[in-house]
Records
---
Amino acid sequence: MTPELQEFVRLAPLGVLVGAYGTLVGAGGGSVLVPILLMLMPLESPATVTAISLAVVFFNAYSGTIAYMQMGRIDYRAGVLFTLAGLPGAVLGTLLVHEMPRSLFDPIFGILLLAIGTMLVANPLGTGGDPGHGVVAPVSDRRMLLGSVGSSYIGVLSSLLGIGGGIIHVPFLIRALRMPPHTATATSHFVLTFIALTATITHVALGEFERGLPQTMYLAVGVMVGAPVGATLSTRLQGSLIVRLLALALCLVGLRLLTGLFR
C-alpha cells in the first residue's frame, strides 16, 4: 500500500465521522477536527492545521446545506443577511491568526466555550415546543439586525480559531433569535458554507496550503459522504438532543483550547 493510499485510508473515514457529526449539530465539524488534526499532525504549524480545518468545514457545510435545502429547513432571508455580515469578519479573523498570540487567546476563549456548553447541557435552549422538523419560523426585523451584528463578530472568532463558527452561531440563533433548533442548524450550515469558503480563500492567498492540500482532499471526500448522513439523522432526533450534542462540541473545543495553559 502506497503512502498516499495509507493516508487516504486513515483520513477519509475520519472525514465521514466529522461530516456526520458536524452536520447533525450544525457546527461544520471543525470543533472536532481541529484537536484531532493537532494530534495526527504534531509537526504542522497551527496556521496549517487551521487552514486544513476551514477548507474541510467548507466541504462539510456545502454538502450539508444541499441536504437541508432539500428538506426545506433553511431560513434564506436570515441566512443571506448573516452571511453578508460575517464575510468581512472571516477575512479579518484569518489575518489575525497570524498576528495574535494564541497562547493568550486560547485559554480565555476556551473558558467561554466551556461556560456556554455547560449552560446548554443544563438548559437546552429553544427545545420546548419545537414547531416541527420542516417548518421555518419567521424572524422579526429587530432580531434580524441583532443576528447580523452577532454574525459579524462570530465570523472573526470562528476564522481566528479555525473551527468554522457553527458551535457559536447555532446557540446564538436559538437564544437571541428564538429559532427552533432544526432551523438554526440548517441556517447556520448555509452561512457557514460561505464563511468557511471566504476564510479558505484567504488562507490560500497567504500560502497556507503548500503542505496540507492532500490531507484536505482526503478529509473532504469523507465529510461529503458523512454530511448527508448527519442531515438524515437530524430528522429522527429531538431538538433537545441536537442542542446537547452541540454543547458537547462546545466543551470539547473549550478543553482543547485550555490545554495551551499546560504547554
---
Amino acid sequence: MRILVVDDEEKLVKGLKFNLENDGYDVSCAYDGAAAVETVREGGIDLVLLDLMMPIMDGLEACRRIREISKVPIIMLTAKGEDNDKILGFEYGADDYVVKPFNIAEVRVRIRAILRRTAAQPTETADDGMAPRVAFGRIELDPNTRNAFVEGSEVPLTVKEYDLIELMMKNPGRVYSRENLLNVVWGYEYPGDIRTVDVHIRRLRMKLEVDPANPEHILRKWGVGYYFKP
C-alpha cells in the first residue's frame, strides 16, 4: 500500500516516512498542497496524510481538489485547538484527522482502520461470489465496489461517508447515537469531536437526498440519534 505524507515540516515527514516504511508501506512525500494534488493525480496512492497549514496551497484547499479527482482516503493532520478547521476538513472530504503533536501509534491505528475497510473483501454469496446490492428507493449501494448511486448515477462518497450510509441502510429503522456511530464506523474508541457525525450526515443528505433540508431517508430522532428510513 502506498501512502502519501504531506507536510512542510521536513523532520516530521522524515519521521513518518521512517516509521511507516518499517510497517511495510511504500511512502511518498510532498511538502505543499499543490504537490500533493499532482501526486494524487498521477495515481497509485492508497491513502494521504495531509497537514492543514502549508505554503503555496493549504491542506483544506488540497483536500478539496483531491476530492475532485479521487476517492483516496485522507487523514488530516491538525494542530491542537483548530476545531473549526477539523470540521471544515470533513466538509471538504477528509475521512479522519490526527491532532498534533501525535503519537505514531495513533497514526498507525488510524491508517490500519481505514485501509482495512477499503481493502476488505466482498462478502460471498452462494450464487456468484458477489455481495448483493443494497437499495431503497432512489439510493443504491454496491458493497463490491463501495460505490453509491442515486437513480442509477454514481455519487462519489468518502470512505467514512460510505461506511456510515452502508451501516444505516443495512439496518433500516435502527437508531444509532452519535457515540455508537463514532465507535462502529470509525472502528475504535474515537477521541474526536462528536460533531464529526453531524458533518458526515449533512454531507450524505446533500449527496443522496432530493431535498437535503427535508430528508426522506437519512433522519434524526431528536435526543437519540440518526437512522435510515426505507
